[in-house]
From TrEMBL:
Keyword Oxidoreductase attached: yes
Organism from which the protein derives: Roseibium album
The keyword Oxidoreductase is annotated on this UniProt entry: yes
Encoding gene per record: qorA_2
Protein name: Quinone oxidoreductase 1
Cellular component terms per the entry's GO annotation: cytosol
Enoyl reductase (ER) domain segment(s): 11-323
UniProtKB keywords: NADP, Oxidoreductase
Length: 325
């Protein structure tokens, strides 16, 4: 038996329980791993609260990313061996000391990247990769706006986009977060608590607007994000930290300049083994070359996941956070 965080009913952070669970041995195509670090992400709160239903129903363990050591492998697993350091993003269930994971979801952590960094960057880093490299091809001619610039994805995306030569604009809610984002690739920062981000974007871009807006905030930044985009530009809604958008009007895309809109998820972009390896490989490459530095700013014991969720939802965290079993 090992310890894990379990959710028996959805709700606030206090619904999470620290319990003993029986992991079992891996079946065909599966691997049992011992976690050394687990990544904390805002999507974890969506599953805990019930905003996103757990695929396995109730009870379940939250968490979508982690790193650890392979303990045993099931039949048919040829690319992994006991003792390998591995990391993953998905499936749900990372908040546990040990777990069984499909082998095809795991990638070997390269030398030079420690377990905490790997656990902290898989979901957020691969999200930045697909946003900047696949959903919209960012390059030297791109002007972009990234909401929540001081968050885990935002700090990675700022560095990566700056490396690609883009003009990078971000929003954040405090002077401290603005300074942090500016140190991670953002040339222009907007304090959304004291400034009108739509007007500031117009000033920064000389009235032209951005080619693409990356929006993980949701309700609080809609429809303002659409007013920041040039005609024929793209709105990428990839999260909803302030609550879901409930009144989306498709006609607004026409009214505001024949805009393109998409609601992507990482798991679609890494649905095949080849796609996962390519996405993770490019992320590992920019981290190993020092182009992207992973800011590991908070660390909690896994048993204290309630406090971690309270701090995350209270916007008290910056960069990335890990839970230690």
């Amino acid at each position: 038996m090992v310890q894990a965080i379990r959710v028996h009913e959805t709700g606030g952070p206090d619904v999470m329980r620290w319990e003993q669970v029986d992991v079992g041995e891996p079946g065909p195509g599966e691997v049992r791993i011992r976690h050394t670090a687990i990544g904390l992400n805002f999507i974890d709160t969506y599953f805990r609260s019930g905003l996103y239903p757990s695929p396995a129903g109730l009870p379940f363990s939250p968490g979508n990313e982690g790193a650890g050591i392979v303990q045993s492998v099931g039949d048919g697993v040829a690319h992994l061996n006991p003792g390998d350091r591995v990391a993953y993003a998905g499936p749900l269930g990372a908040y546990a000391q040990e777990r069984v994971v499909p082998a095809d979801n795991l990638v070997v952590i390269p030398d030079g990247i420690d377990d905490k960094t790997a656990a902290a960057m898989m979901l957020k880093g691969m999200t930045a990769q697909y946003l900047l490299r696949q959903t919209f091809a960012v390059g030297p001619d791109t002007t972009l706006l990234f909401h929540a610039a001081a968050g885990g994805v935002g700090l990675i995306a700022g560095q990566w986009a700056a490396h690609l030569g883009a003009t990078v604009i971000g929003t954040a809610g405090s002077d401290e977060k603005i300074a942090l984002a500016k140190a991670h690739g953002y040339q222009h920062m907007i304090n959304y608590r004291t400034e009108d981000f739509v007007e500031r974007v117009k000033e920064i871009t000389g009235g032209k607007g951005c080619d693409v807006v990356y929006d993980s905030v949701g309700q609080d930044t809609y429809p303002g994000s659409l007013d920041c985009i040039r005609p024929l530009g793209t709105w990428v809604s990839f999260g909803q930290s302030s609550g879901p958008i409930t009144d989306f009007n498709l006609g607004l895309l026409a009214q505001k300049g024949s805009l393109f809109a998409t609601r992507p998820t990482l798991f679609t972009y890494i649905a095949t083994r080849d796609a996962l390896e390519a996405t993770a490989g490019e992320l590992f490459d920019v981290v190993q070359r020092g182009i992207v530095k992973i800011e590991l700013n908070q660390e909690y014991r896994l048993a204290n996941a309630i406090q971690a969720h309270e701090d995350l939802e209270g916007r008290k965290t910056t960069g990335t956070t890990v839970l230690i079993p």
